[in-house]
Amino acid sequence: MSPYLILGFIAIYFLILISISFFTSKNADNNSFFIGNRKSHWFLIALGLIGDSLSGVTFISVPGKVVYDQFSYLQLVFGYLVGYWIISYVLLPVYYKLKLTSIYSYLLGRFGVYSQKTGSFFFILSRLLGAGGRLYLAVLTIQFFVFDRIFGTPAGALEANRNFIITVAVMILLMIAYTYKGGIKTLVWTDSFQSILLLGGLIFSIIAIGTQLNLGFSGMVQEVSNSPHSKIFFWDFNEKTYFWKQFLGGAFIAISMTGLDQNMMQKNLSCPNLKDAQKNIMTFSFVMVIVNVLFISLGALLFVYASKLNIALELKPDGKIFTDKVFPSLALGHLGTIAGLAFIVGLTAATFSSADSVLATLATSFCIDFLGFEKEGKYTEAKRTTLRKIVHLSSAVLLFFVIVVFKLGNNKAIIDTILYLAGFTYGPLLGLFAFGLFTKIKLNDFLVPVICCLTPVFCYFLDKNSMLWFSGYKIGPELILINGILTFILLMLSSLVQKKKVPALT
Hints:
By secondary structure, this protein is mostly helical. It has 19 helices and no strands.
């Protein structure tokens, strides 16, 4: 597929996003940037959340992982449904009752300023790592299949890293261009547009494979069901794919990475009322199951296609298939122009839908939780606007450096890396919010940052030694739950110095 065609599409794509931004950000103020004036339509948010949740990582990593993990990923997705229900009927009522802009303001009212800043810090860390990993994979793909083919393959590692850094900088500048003024007010519309393109890219990729293999819908269903990769449920307790590890891990990943995540909740809180926000989450949750089934099926079809045409797949130094390159290499090198364009459409939309909002939500969290924007009389409106723009740009710089670090240090499938890191960074948030919502105990607020920093360190050593300490047991997605429970227990112990009880804000 011509790299110039891909580059032309990407250019048109960003021109459309900037045009949407131009119209939606007219007369935008700080309230528009942070919360969309609380006038966003629930259906647009539900549609946009598809792209926010899936990302370019899902688009590339999930299909490729089928070769080793089969359909076990669906066990995680089924757990998401439980998590989204809890978000809708436990967390959202609290957020709307308190009329929050940053969800970590809840921690300020419930425990104190140290807890608020701790929650915000772990969100910022989590989102920088998650968005960095997602953008890293997309930029790597675009660099390899577009710029290296136009300008030539780099002669050495130094030149390759330089070209990668330039591509990252360009992509981040483009994101700034359409998020800088309108924030959430703009992102509600751009994310919906990008989700439509993502779904279109996914569906057309499946159709392209079916066309190449002369298969109709029923033929593709039969190929998937007969594939050696189509096993869904796994019952070996010691393995990471064990059903209850995946299912419970999925539920708590959804609660933590959606319900306790400012990036995912900020758009939900821009709905006019709680009923619309709940309608949005529940609609989105069922659509997500269907979309993930399609992604897993796409993975099975990719390996069926490669097997029937005897296509050699790229291997890593350890001899295993380079799973993150399976979909890109087949779509752009073997399946034809339509499939290649569908892949680029889906990848670009998925990546920037999930990454662009990070700049706005990082700015929101820092401005409210660290700079105290909601304190009456602390800043003039003009000062708020100036500070918000500075923080927005600073977030972009931080994201840039995180992507560069991923380039230098990652050697795993990116979806594994992101979910692995989430177990450490979201676990303390899970324990902290659970303690606030389900107990009436007042914490020693000063100790909260210490506890929330200690538990991930302990969980890291637990994860590294679990097979030795627990007779071959491998920790999987349940790491986030273990981290949350440990945080809860330590918070309970720290509260023993507090005799006075306060009502929970539920």
